[in-house]
Amino acid sequence: MVPVLVTALIVAGVVFVAAVVWAWPRLAGPGLRPVLGRIGLQLAITLTMGLPLLLAVNHTYGFYSSWSDLLSLSRDAPVAAGQDQGARGLVVRGTHSWRYRGSDDPAEIGRIEAVTVRGARSGLRGQAYVHLPPEFLRADAAERARFPVVLALSGYPSTTRVLIDLFRYPQLALDSVRAGKMRPAVLVMMTPTVAPPRDTECVDVPDGPQVETFFSRDLPEAVAAHYRLTRDPRAWGVIGNSVGGYCALKLALRAPDAYRAAAGLSASYQAARDDETGDLFGGDAALRRENDLLWRLRTRPQPPVSLLVASSRKGEKQYPQTLEFIAAVRPPARVSSIVLDSGGHNYETWGREVQPALEWLVGRLRQPD
In which element (H, E) is residue 175 found? Predict the structure, then answer.
């Protein structure tokens, strides 16, 4: 929908520029009104030509997931008194108001809670949304402990809201469950940026933020304790796009005691080094190699994890490395793939991959014994 809007605005901008060229001679000359008219036309041109660019950039990176998000019109409802004391580092801040397929009844679409996770080991704090499916809400304590859990990570830069508004993880999960293609799962949705504004690539930075520890230890323990979920890693999976995809694959390979399945959509396979990341490894070449996924697959014993990678033959620069990654996986690890004929590093491409990847991921998660 957004590309259509961008295209329409570009066409409108071209038409407006043509109109300005036609009208400009009529505003020539001295006097207050012609001067104000020329200033107004110049401002209008800037807005008309700049708005499509801003929308296109936002659509690529997901800074804002909707107009309500941009204007801060959407607010999460506070929870009732006495419900905001989370166990072991998780605090419920409120419930996210949403509708799907004409319903806002939690008995039909589940409940999305806005939470803050406070890491006991890492000292980091991260905000997340947790979708509790309707089957979970009506289950007893013993049944809830058997639900699979999926951590969904966005890219960088991004916001947690894109996972609901653009990726539509809860909506797609509901559709897949209703179609009999997936069993219900608890979804934990957040951005990997828990030490903003730095892009930490889910690394335990020497003398810096311990982000891998947050996602591999703090987050699962806090979520499991609060919602009384299993900590059996065979029931936990992680999925992400771009940097989030790199984090997902790395967490499974480096922390199989936390996650036994992972899906990376347009994932990178090494940690970046740029102005946003800085030196994540403190000059330690060995630590950098340990976080290089291709290097790990080729030189380290592989854990018993299931991995999915998604890419496109045309339009995705990571495609050659994706093929290298697939070729490097050996038992007991297993790998599957989604390869599109054409795509790119954008939400249109990921939108085609999320639902089959989510169904694949939950299908690899086991119920605890």
Answer: helix 169-178
Q: Which residues of 122-151 are buried (b: 16+ CB within 10 A; e: fewer)?
A: bebebebbbbbbbebeebeeeebbbbbbbb
- DSSP sequence for 192-236: S-SSTT---TT-B-TTS-BHHHIIIIIHHHHHHHHHT----GGGE
Cβ burial 3-16 (10 Å sphere, 16+ → b, else e): eeebeebbeebeeb
Compute the distance between CA of residue 324 and CA of residue 189 in angstroms, rounded to an integer. 29
Kindly give, in sequence order, each residue whose CB lies less than 8 Å from that of residue 300, ignoring residues fewer than 6 positions away.
Answer: none
CA 164 to chain centre: 9
Can you give the length of the chain in residues? Answer: 369
CB atoms within 10 A of CB 36: 11
Residue at 291: amino acid letter: N
For 260-277, the pLDDT digits (tens) are: 999 999 999 999 989 899
- What is the C-alpha to C-alpha distance for residues 77 and 220, in angstroms, rounded to an integer? 25
CB of 162 within 8 A of CB of 65? yes
Helices (H), 24-147: 32-61, 67-70, 106-109, 134-137, 141-144
Token pair, residue 150, equals 């999926």
What is the 8-class DSSP label of residue 92?
A: E
What are the C-alpha distances in Å from 270 to residues 113, 287, 316? 33, 12, 16
What's the pLDDT tens digit per position in 42-87?
A: 777 776 666 565 555 555 544 454 445 444 444 555 543 334 444 4
Residue with token string 């589940």: 110
Residue with tokens 């703090």: 218
Calpha distance 351→167 (Å, rounded): 6
Q: Judge if the upstream peptide bond of residue 3 is cis by omega within 30 degrees of 0.
A: no
Tokens read off for 144 = 């809830």
* 327 and 321 Cβ atoms separated by less than 8 Å: no
Tell me 305's DSSP state: -
